[in-house]
Amino acid sequence: MTLQIARNPEESSLPFLVRIPIGDGIVLRVKDTWPRTSKIYCHPHGLPWPEEPEIVEELSLRSCVKRGAAIDIEVDRTRESRSQFVFARARGREVIFWQSRRTSKTARPDVKLPTARASGLAELEILVDTRERYAWKFAAEQATTVKRALPVGDYGVEVDGELVAAVERKSLEDLVGSLLQGKLFEQQAALAELPHAVVLVEDRYSSVFKLTHVRPSVVADMLGEAQVRHPTVPVIFAETRPLAEQWAFRFFGAVLRERAMSEELDRRIGAGEL
């Protein structure tokens, strides 16, 4: 399995072609051969891979995996080995960027981050479990809530009638009680059946070490154990109730946006449009 990079035979501001070994091969026009100092803008080539390409580099890959709306690659070398192709939308049009961990941290964002709507979604419906007491209202966010008995979690979102993400809300007191009773592990096991799930705590992690009715080290050890047992269901401390509510709002928006982009990418790969 290789990542092939060739010269673009057409005159273009994107002088190279890259062939990603996904499906029948995704061919993109790119500005450079590797994202070393900044993100690289890419564009679908719209034509088959050249019959006699002028190969610039042929990189042996350890892995090439589609994850949501991104394709992660790992090159079989010690330096500059990991990068990803990210498919997104900005100002109503598709954009594709090739980035490494270094360039994603240092480059100025090319897509404007949402400030009001979650991930730019015009509508966001959040399900609230009927057993949830003193529920978040999401009154400050652009979202609607619907009361429903959820099979797992306190809040969730659906896609085509399927629960795809859930948040289990905890106060610090509730978290400690759930840990000591072993209930949290059971809740995490159930949450792990979903594609996306978190346990969200309305307090700071530092508050664990201020507990007086139980040894803080015991709680800290059990939190570590919870994460080891269920690595796909993180326990996140969001400091305050309003921040936890905001975090859940952004989380659900990101889930729905990512799923929509992933389905669109699957469609385009299946239709041979890339």
Automatic annotation (TrEMBL):
TM regions (residue ranges): none
Ranges of residues in domain ERCC4: 125-205
Name used for this protein in its record: ERCC4 domain-containing protein
GO process terms (BP): DNA metabolic process
Top-level division of the source organism's lineage: Bacteria
InterPro entries: ERCC4_domain (IPR006166), Restrct_endonuc-II-like (IPR011335)
Any one GO molecular function term: DNA binding
Biological source species: Tessaracoccus flavus
